[in-house]
Write a structure and sequence with these properties.
The chain contains eight helices and nine strands. The chain has 251 residues and is α/β, with parallel strands linked by helices. Helix 4 (117-130) crosses helix 5.
Length: 251
């Protein structure tokens, strides 16, 4: 494992008790990878393959049953507080607070970190503008389209200043045109701002559009493929990668 890795998993296992007790269910079965700073990595796999479980371990919401998880050299579950502010999450559902305006929602991450009102407002304003929502600062979530709400939740994640962005299928509830636009904007913003992003998806096209790298999981979560994407790949290379991934997901 590289010491400079932003995120590293070393032989990680996660077991869950089965309902009713007795046997355990192994949701993650010996996963090792490491993610470098500035990378956009898509974690791709079918429903039930353990993507959210990996995600929850990176976010420190749960710990591994065996093996080691490190985020910036720390244990995200055991040292949760030390990593507060280093990780921001964008969920499938935008999880905006309905009683707050767009700007108050976008400042929520910084508010939870105890930052002052002026700093929150400036950062929220900057990121709302960056995400094309200038003029909508005072709007409430119910007045915004699904795509705009997801823009607010991206603004909230960027505004919080976290170096690592964790995204759990944030665009899967949107229509394909909107999703495609947001994917492009998201990856440019991550790159321009030197963030690291882990992006969970079950869509091969989304993984190809977004990532510098695609980690393909088979069920139970084991790494089947780990593919680095070259910038400016030609059509034939993309088709080849797509076919390789399809073959694994069809197993
Ligand atoms: N808290 C839990 N308790 C018991 N089983 C769980 C729990 N979380 C996930 N699982 C099981 O682990 C497997 C992987 O789940 P999950 O990580 O949510 O997959 P994915 O996000 O890829 O759809 C599934 O079979 C799921 O039922
Ligand atoms: Mg999931």
């Amino acid at each position: 494992m590289s010491a400079a890795a932003e995120i590293s998993f070393d032989n990680v296992v996660k077991d869950f008790p089965r309902p009713g007790g007795g046997e355990i269910f192994r949701a993650v079965d010996g996963v090792t990878f490491s993610i470098a700073r500035g990378d956009i990595v898509a974690l791709l796999g079918k429903t039930g393959c353990g993507k959210s479980t990996l995600f929850n371990m990176i976010a420190g919401l749960t710990g591994p049953s065996a093996g080691t998880v490190r985020v910036r050299g720390r244990d995200p579950f055991g040292e949760f507080d030390a990593l507060r502010g280093e990780i921001a999450i964008v969920f499938q559902n935008d999880r905006l607070l309905p009683w707050r305006s767009a700007i108050a929602n976008a400042g929520l991450g910084l508010e939870m970190l105890g930052r002052g009102a002026a700093e929150r407002k400036a950062a929220a304003q900057f990121w709302l503008t960056r995400l094309g929502l200038a003029g909508h600062e005072a709007d409430y979530p119910h007045a915004l389209s699904g795509g705009m709400r997801q823009r607010v939740s991206m603004a909230r994640a960027f505004a919080a200043g976290a170096g690592i962005l964790l995204c759990d299928e944030p665009f899967s509830a949107l229509d394909e045109m909107t999703a495609q636009t947001l994917r492009g904007e998201f990856s440019s913003l991550v790159r321009e701002n030197g963030r690291t992003a882990v992006f969970i998806t079950h869509s091969i096209s989304e993984a190809l559009e977004l990532g510098d790298r695609i980690i393909v999981l088979r069920r139970p979560a084991r790494i089947a493929l780990d593919i680095r994407l070259e910038r400016g790949m030609d059509r034939a290379r993309r088709d080849e990668i797509r076919e390789n991934i399809q073959a694994v997901l069809a197993e």
